């Protein structure tokens, strides 16, 4: 326990904030294929639930104790009547044809409450593409785990390469991998996220996802395909990317050779069906996460006339300083520990030096102590 104290002045204390970034690559083979059974086609790292509202992807078979949750996949559409995501003709009434109408609309509403919020009347606001200035009524949701996202996704670092055209008849109705068909994947990025993000979401900041299609209509507005919520770690894609011509594709991704629109596409299967179809079309996902590191730095200064005597009771022997052999010798101490005390002399933090530092009345020391939180 210290017997002498030195008050830290405001000039001795500095607060800093740093951002640590980690690259997160997720390959399509992890998302679908690495842990598939060769006998019955089961995917051991994909967890389906009895409620059927979303699907979870793990990096190892999910029953393994070492498995880590990567992200979820789900879809949903707005329960409100009206035009589709890009102001085209009214969609067919989904409630008359979709056995999972309630689950899909509830999923859309839940995500909208979290990410978009409410309007002045108290109604849930729909997802809206700020570049196209239109509502996104049918959406694919990819919530990433906090293990990967940390505090947030780094703006401008997100990339999702996915096949949006073609089908695999082996799996029926296009619910399967298409990577062997030779069609090119479309890459969705938040290229303008570092300086073009929005702040009107209750979940924090978000950016627009653009696709990299080389078709003539793929200008800035035409390429706007979804939203990325940085702090929430959720990507939202409009289902219209699976429509004819939207990303340069010449046939629907999830309905082989069909001329139906995205709303009818969403009515044709369960959420698990579409989660399987979407996963099997992912070629690669990558982004940088962000960890915010707040620090307080204390500069503990020992001037020439300070801390030259040890507070260790064994420093003295019969009232004589042990480290002195002659009465004329100057006192010597060795600094090994820095203690930070509160206003009532309560020990709050301890910092240990890597080696003892010699302190005499002929030298001065400044010890830099950093607390991270």
Give a written overview of the molecule.
- Residues 82-93, 168-182, 214-219 and 248-261 have low confidence and may be disordered.
- The protein is mainly beta and 373 residues long.
- The chain is built from five helices and 20 strands.
- It has two domains: 19-292, no CATH class; 303-372, no CATH class.
- The chain is elongated and about 100 Å long.
What is the general shape? elongated
End-to-end CA span: 25 Å
Q: Average pLDDT value?
A: 81
Number of helices: 5
The count of DSSP E runs of length 2 or more, i.e. the number of strands, is 20
SS-based structural class? Answer: mainly beta
- Biggest sheet architecture: 14 strands, antiparallel
Strand content: 35-45%
Q: Roughly how much helix do the residues carry, as a percent range?
A: 10-25%
Give start-end ranges of low-pLDDT stretches: 82-93, 168-182, 214-219, 248-261
Total domains = 2
SSE pattern: EHEEEHEEEHEEEEEEEHHEEEEEE
Radius of gyration: 30 Å
